[in-house]
């Protein structure tokens, strides 16, 4: 084995000014890494604005690189080595964006944490990730304060923003270290946690190579260019912002950072900054439609809203299009670095009336340019006919399928069996070759674009002394897409009200996971003892 192919170059070359200096390889073989996108942006257009922060501060590409290099140097100063993991718990902002370069540029892997979780969940994720350093926003610091001393791997917690011992001080004090390309492009770059169907969170490992390819795929799908302005309405913690943390930089476009999605503010920013691109879950699209509908006129510029994470409604697509914003529908999973299907508009659709165009756009589409193959197959692995009716499981093969689940070989083998990623989504193939998701095999509930595992909630309910059995299913919801609803059978002699159980859950998990209703009843079962969830869902119709 090549002596450096399983890691990064050591300290000796860290201070050099060339990111690839000292690495093996040839003129025609350089590791693929999104870190090189920042180097290019800073080298080619260093004085141009790369990022506009939430306070309106303009940050040049050169300055973004310097800050990322300071972060990289600070991590090295803390003794971190190749492969160590650095977690960030923060809303969208400059620190989280620069961590997408400074952390991998130091040879470490980034763990961008969901900002909506409960303290116990953070403790579990930080433990699973064995994070050595945690960067935390002051607004979220209390959620990890108790857990931090209990985490043996954790060496430092740096609070973002100014203040004593804070992140900014640490950057200032650090010796900047050149952002390095990995010796091996298959080196982990990020770990993103998903709440899998088995209830336990799984760490999805992204490589430099996959991130690079998917980011370029996004540049292609959404048409980002150096004069584009991308508004951050998608959390950077969700699949690293569907790889836009890197795609926008690859294009040399401007990142407009936004910590919180408030529809009026989004619409104002779109207008004043002439935003050309933004992304989000259908719930975000719906809220913009609701507020935008009250405005007069269309946006002066051409803008594209890329929607995904769940199926958007044709009505919302049509309404947004009427405001002069084009819709691009994307489908993906954490396991595919975000987007892997795109509903690529066909020239003939221009002749369609608005409702028909919206309904073809509501389909999930075709594979993105970086995906090798996307099939819909029966249980016997045969492709379903392109009739728009026969359903099968969507399976994917791509250089942008995750490397593996962190420390979980069994789950990795199951997900990637037979050389394909099994998405667990049920789809049909239309006569024009476009795919449409009809259902999911798994019972994950998607609320506000975020997945929640029914089993995780059931397990928490079952921990209540009065509860014998529990099943949680999705109920369609106009604003959030879906909300969880629970069915509970109490133990003989057990007593608990819906309110008590709700309080019990609220103490244990993020509030968006807590069922909106709790029904008390026996649970219908199959002959093998499995709860018939479809029947429970039907009860809610
Ligand atoms: P996550 O890993 O949290 O990104 O969730 C992935 C799941 O979200 C997929 O397996 C699908 O069930 C669902 N999903 C993502 N995008 C779409 C979409 N455009 N339409 C329907 N379901 C989607």
Helix share, percent = 25-40%
CATH 2nd-level architecture of the largest domain: 3-Layer(aba) Sandwich
Quaternary arrangement of the chains shown?
single chain
Overall form: globular
| Terminal CA distance | 60 Å
Instruction: Determine the CATH topology of the largest domain.
Output: Rossmann fold
Ligand types = adenosine monophosphate
Strand content: 15-25%
Number of strands: 25
Total of helices: 18
- Total tally of structural domains: 3
Major β-sheet annotation: 9 strands, mixed
Radius of gyration equals: 23 Å
The CATH superfamily title of the largest domain: ANL, N-terminal domain
What layout of secondary structure does this protein have?
Elements: H1 11-14, H2 35-45, E1 49-52, E2 58-60, H3 61-77, E3 85-89, H4 94-105, E4 109-112, H5 119-129, E5 131-136, H6 142-145, E6 156-159, H7 167-173, E7 188-195, E8 201-207, H8 208-222, E9 229-231, H9 239-242, H10 244-251, E10 254-256, H11 263-272, E11 277-280, H12 282-292, E12 303-307, H13 314-322, E13 325-333, E14 338-342, H14 354-361, E15 366-367, E16 371-377, E17 392-398, E18 404-405, H15 409-415, E19 421-429, E20 435-440, E21 445-447, E22 450-452, H16 454-462, E23 467-477, E24 481-490, H17 498-506, E25 517-520, H18 533-539
Parallel strand pairs: 1-10, 3-4, 3-5, 5-6, 9-10, 9-11, 11-12, 12-13, 24-25
Antiparallel strand pairs: 1-2, 7-8, 8-18, 13-14, 14-15, 16-17, 17-19, 19-20, 21-22, 23-24
Helix pairs in contact: 2-3, 2-10, 3-4, 3-7, 8-10, 11-12, 12-13, 13-14
């Amino acid at each position: 084995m090549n002596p450096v192919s399983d890691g990064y170059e050591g300290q000796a070359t860290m201070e050099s000014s060339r990111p690839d200096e000292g690495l093996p390889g040839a003129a025609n073989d350089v590791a693929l890494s999104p870190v090189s996108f920042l180097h290019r942006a800073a080298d080619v257009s260093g004085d141009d604005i790369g990022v506009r922060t939430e306070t309106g501060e303009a940050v040049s590409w050169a300055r973004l690189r310097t800050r990322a290099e300071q972060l990289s140097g600070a991590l090295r100063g803390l003794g971190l080595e190749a492969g160590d993991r650095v977690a960030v718990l923060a809303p969208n902002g400059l620190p989280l964006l620069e961590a997408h370069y400074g952390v991998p540029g130091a040879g470490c892997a980034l763990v961008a944490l969901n900002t909506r979780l409960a303290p116990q969940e953070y403790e579990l994720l930080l433990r699973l990730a064995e994070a050595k350093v945690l960067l935390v926003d002051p607004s979220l610091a209390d959620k990890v304060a108790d857990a931090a001393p209990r985490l043996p791997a954790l060496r430092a917690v740096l609070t973002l923003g100014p203040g004593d011992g804070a992140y900014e001080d640490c950057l200032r004090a650090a010796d900047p270290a050149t952002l390095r390309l990995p010796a091996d492009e298959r080196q982990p770059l990020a770990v993103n946690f998903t709440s899998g169907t088995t209830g336990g969170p799984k760490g999805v490992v992204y490589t430099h190579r996959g991130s690079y390819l998917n980011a370029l795929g996004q540049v292609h799908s959404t048409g980002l260019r150096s004069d584009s302005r991308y508004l951050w309405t998608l959390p950077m913690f969700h699949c690293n912002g569907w790889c836009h943390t890197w795609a926008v930089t690859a294009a040399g476009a401007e990142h407009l950072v936004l910590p919180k999605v408030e529809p009026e503010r989004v619409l104002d920013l779109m207008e004043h900054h002439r935003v050309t691109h933004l992304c989000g879950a259908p719930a975000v699209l719906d809220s913009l439609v609701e507020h935008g509908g009250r405005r007069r006129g269309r946006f002066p510029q051409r803008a594209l809203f890329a929607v995904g994470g769940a199926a958007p409604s044709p009505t919302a697509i049509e309404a947004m299009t009427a405001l002069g914003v084009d819709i691009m529908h994307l489908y993906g999973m954490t396991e595919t670095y975000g987007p892997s299907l795109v509903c690529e508009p066909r020239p003939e659709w221009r002749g369609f009336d608005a409702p028909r165009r919206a309904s073809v756009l509501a389909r999930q589409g075709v594979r993105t340019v970086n995906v090798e193959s996307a099939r819909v197959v029966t249980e016997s692995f045969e492709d379903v006919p392109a009739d728009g009716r026969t359903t099968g499981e969507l399976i994917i093969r791509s250089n942008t399928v995750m490397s593996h689940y962190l420390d979980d070989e069994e789950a990795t083998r199951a997900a990637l069996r037979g050389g394909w990623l099994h998405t667990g989504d049920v789809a049909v193939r239309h006569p024009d070759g476009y795919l449409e998701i009809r259902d999911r095999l798994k019972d994950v509930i998607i609320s506000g674009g975020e997945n929640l595992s029914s089993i995780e909630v059931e397990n928490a309910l079952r921990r209540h002394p009065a509860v014998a059995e529990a099943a949680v299913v999705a109920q369609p919801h106009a604003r959030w897409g879906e909300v969880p609803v629970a069915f509970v059978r109490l133990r003989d002699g057990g007593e608990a009200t819906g309110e008590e159980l709700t309080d019990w859950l609220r103490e244990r998990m993020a509030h968006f996971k807590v069922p909106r209703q709790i029904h008390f009843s026996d649970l219908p079962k199959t002959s093998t003892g499995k709860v018939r969830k479809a029947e429970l869902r039907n009860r809610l119709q």
